[in-house]
Amino acid sequence: MEQNFDEIRPYTDAEIPAAAQRVADSPYLPAIVNYLFPGREVGEFQQIFRNLHSIHDFQDIVMYPAIRSIIEKTSSGFSTSGFESLHDNRKRMFISNHRDILLDAAILQTLLVDHGLDTSEITFGSNLMNGELVVDIGKMNKMFRIMRGGHIRDFYQNSMHVSSYMRYAIVGKQQSVWIAQRNGRTKDGDDRTDMAVLKMFALSSDKDFVDNLSELNITPMVVSYEYEPCDFMKTQEIFISRYQKYEKEPGEDLNSILHGIKQFKGHIHFAIAPAITVEDLNFCDRFERNKKFQHLAGIIDKRVYLNYKLWPTNYIAYELLNQTYKYKDQYTQEEMDHFVEYMEQGLSSLVGDPSELREIFLGIYANPVVNYEQLFV
What we know:
alpha/beta
């Protein structure tokens, strides 16, 4: 039976002109233009939006230069690995570690374009789809909605619907999909694939475990920032969460998006890890149901840890946290001094026990080193 995905899907080309007109008329457009393209006239961009007629137009004329502008303003440049494996033209489920609300998926799109590949569709939490401007820009950029929160009785139905849409996108529409490996960003630097995400993938097919998941061509993607987006905000949230339930302030998600865009990120590396093969799935299929997904999550995690680019900041944090000199060849004294100054300045603005805040902050940067080490234990 054909399903209706209108409430979650991205816009079609036919819906782009009306959405672009709404963006052109938005009172928030001038602030966006002034940040991303200083010195250029808002009227120029209003005219650009009024002349958009397709998703490709929007991504090529607006999003690509916008993300490039963010990278140029806030990073020391980026490197890539593994993208040559995507030239088999197979569509895939990119399952990614998740460090920044917007940029993880957005930068991937620019890299796909740079490699002559079609952009992917992108999952977008319903908690972030607030306000007409955000919804329009998101859906024009091939984003589709995943429900967050709500009643537990609706959870299975929502998961089934999203799973069906993702399979339809990959198999039916021939569009790759980007999704985070867990619900929300990794706050503590410890990237772990949530089995619930993998189980959601499987909901939309009655095929056996191997045929079901091989159809999606699951491909781990790994993003590594030298300076973690929103690192001090994440430190504060983790500290508060240790003592009470953390309640987000109104507009906090939007603030995190803006902070992640503006914050200096140092070097950035994007890696495409080897896709999950039929052989991988056959290995997992030897176990009972929960264990199948547990082993699959473990394979994905190992590929994330092997392909995570460890920066001097990661090694320095590990050394400071463990009071060792194990990785002293991986950084200079100048880099150590700069990181310590950066840490102390940022932590001074947070509320809580200074030593505990310091331990949390260092853990965010040190955990990728810990996870890499565990691969060889």
